[in-house]
Amino acid sequence: MGTLRVTLNAHLFLQQINHNGFNRVILERLPRLNLPQAHLVAGCLFQTIWNVQAGLAPHHGIMDYDVFYFDEHDVSYEAEDHAIRRAAALFADLPVRVELRNQARVHLWYEQRFGRPCPQLSSTRAGIDRFLILATCVGITSGPGGAHEVYAPHGFSDLVGGMLRPNPVHGDRALFEAKARSYQERWPWLHLCGVKAG
């Protein structure tokens, strides 16, 4: 494993994730979409941190770059699809997949896809709060003049320490274990924490 400061804060987190040029470009352009509560979230952030720790290229193996937004005024498929097409045009020159999802309509399709219901969410950050693993609950907004705000409700100690701890808000043990295994295959030094045997 490579080195990364053990005491990570929001400022250092931003520095680290900006080593991944795709994160940097997406955050720079994100305000152009003019979507409410737009955040860059999930794997492109925490996987960049783990790649840096492992001495890999910051963008190594990152399959997609997720953007969440929250528009409760129009939860139709058509409105979300229009936003998705706008984002596809904005990021068309990047050799990565940018995936956009309106968190205000997650409850409409979640059960059909995952086999269990999802409560109606109240914000983009409520969506981030439901990630399976506490260390991965991170997101970044991008405002005027390139100002960024980091959302990390559980801090950064698990992320830096490679601790894969289940999120009690979600509570799906099987999904957690599958996700944790997939991460450990890529970063073997990651370890389970707070998981009871059985």
List keywords for this structure.
single chain; 198 residues; alpha/beta; five-stranded mixed β-sheet; two-stranded parallel sheet; 7 strands; 38% helix; globular
Number of strands: 7
| C-alpha-based Rg, rounded | 16 Å
Q: Please describe the biggest sheet, giving its number of strands, its sense, and whether it closes into a barrel.
A: 5 strands, mixed
| Distinct helical segment count | 8
Number of domains: 1
Mean pLDDT: 92
Helicity range:
25-40%
Which spans of ≥5 residues are poorly predicted at pLDDT below 50?
Answer: 1-6
Spatial order of strands in the largest sheet: 3-2-1-4-5
Descriptive overview:
The protein has helices spanning 10-17, 21-29, 43-54, 77-90, 106-114, 124-128, 157-161, 173-186, and strands spanning 39-41, 64-69, 97-102, 139-142, 148-151, 163-164, 191-192. The protein has 198 residues and is an alpha/beta fold. It has one domain.
In short:
The protein has helices spanning 10-17, 21-29, 43-54, 77-90, 106-114, 124-128, 157-161, 173-186; strands at residues 39-41, 64-69, 97-102, 139-142, 148-151, 163-164, 191-192. It is α/β, with parallel strands linked by helices and 198 residues long.
